[in-house]
Amino acid sequence: MLGSIAGQPLVILLTGHPDPDAIGGALAHQRICESLGIPATIAHVLPVSHRENRALVKLLNIEMHHIANPAELSAYKYFSLVDTSSVETSIDLPADLKLLTVVDHHTRVGGPKVDAAFVDLRPQLGATCSIYAEYLQQGLAPLTGERREDARVATALLFGIQTDTDDFANATPADFAAASYAKAFCDADILKRVGRRTVSAAAMNVLGQALSNLRVIRDFAFAGVGFVPLGDRDAIGSAADYILMREDIDTVLVYGVVEDRVDGSLRTNSPSVDPAVFLQTAFGRDRDGKPYGGGRADKGGFQIPLGLLAECEDTDRLWILVTEMIESRLERVVPDIERERERERDRDRDHDRDRRDRRRADD
After folding, report:
1. pTM higher than 0.85 for the full model?
2. Are strands 98-104 and 118-121 parallel, antiparallel or unpaired?
3. Which of 180, 173, 73 lies closest to 133 in space, CA to CA?
4. Could you give the CA distance from residue 174 to residue 167 in angstroms, rounded to a whole number?
5. Could you tell me which residues come within 8 angstroms of residue 256 by beta carbon, excluding any fewer than 6 positions away?
6. Where are the beta strands (DSSP E) in 150-279?
7. 144 to each of 28, 59, 60, how far by Cα in Å?
8. Is the Cβ–Cβ distance between 266 and 279 less than 8 Å?
9. 264: closest CA among 322, 202, 312, 335?
10. Per-residue pLDDT tens digits for 24-63
């Protein structure tokens, strides 16, 4: 399919904040395109926000074009989606820009049908990079170790597989086979530098808010963390990861306001919780039928536009409205939230009554 547009420029358009699986897959997709005589550009709309992801781009010298205006896409007739089957909603694509290929490992839940000439969706795999490693291994621009470029692509693929399978804890045999193929060509020193774990001050602040506001309903926990700068939005997911380590909790949802939307992350250890179904049931779909949230085996995320509410200058009142909205939606999936709220109201009434009775006795 790519060969049919040889010589024509193509843009690999990443959705959301690019993560290692998307970046590694895009780099491999670009390699395949160029081997077929197709000039390919990796582009994204939302910034690369996580420190590790920025380090990956910098250390491997990956050229990625930040799209700020739809007019910047007018130079392309075709585009490809990698690590997603949904187009970035924060920008209006040119009407004549045609979706050519889709390669993804996430489970699709509702939304418009993917309309592309080539679609490879494998939700049984742990990473999209595993699919691209297979493409390369089976003959599409294979790695040989003869060029420095091979090490760049292999390192990005291996890091993408590692991160999206939670350090291989959720890897399938196919993911391990793909990682083994990439490992033979990767730059081990860069891989170590990219994967070095550090925690930013902003992430600690978000975690502190999450712990302070944590509500636990049986084995489910959720917390709001207030207003989070765009560059620190990955701290929401990191907070959910940390809280999930608590021994009596198996599912966690953490949310905050990021610019003009509510941004949240779900993490779970429960075999009965499907993140995509959980988030779709709680938050539903937009007017175009696209779910506000999605996910895979053990994690998911959601983004809900605030619309005109984003212009509200009273941030305290806005946060109250956001909290009420999130809790009311979560009640669709966790009805005990409302029952717990009723018990809290009863306790508050009892406390007020006891305080009045003590005052009367003192008088």
Report:
1. no
2. parallel
3. 180
4. 15
5. 206, 224, 225, 226, 227, 228, 233, 236, 262, 263, 264
6. 215-217, 220-227, 251-258, 261-268
7. 14, 21, 18
8. yes
9. 322
10. 999 999 999 999 999 999 999 998 877 788 889 999 999 9
